Amino acid sequence: MLNREIKTILEKSKNWGWVLEPDAKRIFSMSGFQTPMYAVVKKPQEAIAAAHAIGYPVVVKIVSPDIIHKSDVRGVVVGIKDDDRLVAALEKFRKLPGFVGMLIDEMAGGLELIMGAKNDEQFGPMILLGFGGVGVEIYKDISLRMAPLKKPHVEDMMRELKAYPLLTGYRGAKPVNIAAVQKTLIRFSTLMMDMKDYFESVDLNPVMCGEKVCTVVDARIMLKNTR
Ligand code: ADP
Ligand code: MG
């Protein structure tokens, strides 16, 4: 079941057709997902105060209803370590189309996975799991299942990935907490079922999974066109 605040966010986002990243992060964090600490700011003094509260290094991102793919317009800067660079990023973002704020994110770590959902007219939410980063477009190493997912489905989905050994600690790399991946994907499938009247597609790209947790660092919710 979606709570009232989630419904309110989804309703207001229909004005531009998708859910801005800070609102999407709020939806995911309210639904029990791990997200980075974050804040949205407009002015240098607010940015500095928020970055200090979160703690450097931080990641900053453009928030604009006109910008869906933030990196394409240089709207993401990772690893900001001081006030000067923070304020410089804000000044640049303010010139981008549709600027409504700058998102400041705590830096997360881990292997970049993708969790996605497509809302099929006939079958309902189809859930995708894959590896993130540039690799996803090159290797098309993904697995798909119809929601809702249970533990055995999720185990199969993980094992289907050619790059599965990366999760278990290939060649001395640190292994990922497999139970956390499973839990996150099951929770994702449940939320997608609850949201199925609202969304067309959802991309968590990436979810960063480490030895302990999976953190949703980017979330894009494209809404159904109901007008
Ligand atoms: P885009 O709209 O371009 O997909 P993202 O929010 O996914 O923007 O950011 C681009 C990249 O920056 C991510 O793929 C990830 O590698 C990195 N990144 C974003 N947010 C964080 C974060 N909070 N911690 C660590 N890395 C991050
Ligand atoms: Mg992304």
General description of the model:
The strands form two sheets. Strands 1, 6, 7, 8, 9, 10 and 11 form a seven-stranded antiparallel sheet that branches. Strands 2-5-3-4 form a four-stranded antiparallel sheet, covered by helices on one side. By secondary structure, the protein is an alpha+beta fold. The mean pLDDT is 95. The protein has eight helices and eleven strands. α3 packs across α4. Magnesium ion binds at residues 205, 218.
What is the secondary structure topology, with strand pairs?
Layout: H1 4-13, E1 18-19, H2 21-30, E2 38-41, H3 44-54, E3 58-63, E4 76-80, H4 83-93, E5 101-106, E6 111-120, E7 124-131, H5 135-139, E8 142-146, H6 151-160, H7 164-167, H8 178-194, E9 199-209, E10 214-216, E11 219-223
Antiparallel strand pairs: 1-11, 2-5, 3-4, 3-5, 6-7, 6-9, 7-8, 9-10, 9-11
Helix pairs in contact: 3-4
The structure holds adenosine-5'-diphosphate and magnesium ion.
